[in-house]
Design brief:
By secondary structure, this protein is α/β, with parallel strands linked by helices. Helices cover 35% and strands 18% of the residues. Keywords: Glycosidase, Hydrolase.
Length: 301
Amino acid sequence: MSIPIIIDTDPGIDDAAAISLALHHPQLDVQLISTVHGNVPLHLTTRNAQQLIEYFHARVPVASGAASPLIQKPVHAPHVHGESGMAGYAFDEPTTPLISNNSVETMKDLLLQSTTPMTLVPIGPLTNIALLLKMYSEVHTYIHQIVLMGGSAGPGNITPAAEFNVYADPEAAHIVFQSGIPIVMAGLDIARASNLPHTLLPKIKDMNQTGHMLYHLFQHYRGESFLDGLNVYDAYTMMYLCYPDLFTVRPAQVEVELSGTHARGATFVDFNVTDSSTHVLMDIQAEDFQAAFLEMLQYCP
């Protein structure tokens, strides 16, 4: 039986990879794509999500969400993803209208109407998810779990202390991690444990139409440790949902630093717990990650 999910995203090249895999894997049932500020401004993340949906002729609604963090000014990363957010491939301009300009309300309605608790998969800043949880507390029992990309048990990537998605809205991340809802955190630790080596990219290019598209996006992707391979951060969330046994997972308590000149946005991960609603992905064997990525890609057109 497939897992019903809502993807909250800021595409983003690694987001594009994650969305591509999620739309086609039989284990996943994408009910909605919600967009948020992040890698590029909201109007671009929304356009990028629409372009991906139309590229695949997928019947998945797109709703736009928060254009800025709860408190601070927006933070973007065009140096990683290009000015458009998905540099490297010429997508057609989208023609299908958004289902809503208020994705928080759309998520609330979808959750309350669902007969099965759903999984939220935030792969960008957590602004929309925090607003959903604070504004509509009645949805908590309709959420099976939150599988998010963000945070780090070690060093950051946008600052020495902080990972980008959490740093882009620390207050929102704090709300989510304090919600008590079961959370699986796919942070920088798991991405640093494995990557897509550059030598694998020609094989990806020749696999199918999706691989060809991702190959061209990956040529413009400048994530962490680029010289060693591609850290396709957001794809780990989808891979965990489809192949959880491949991962080393540890319970932890996660606190988000909201102040400080050097540590704002840092996630302090305490593994000295025996039971917690939050679990952190810590490891996957590099060969398992690569094999699973290729297997997931085989489901794509």
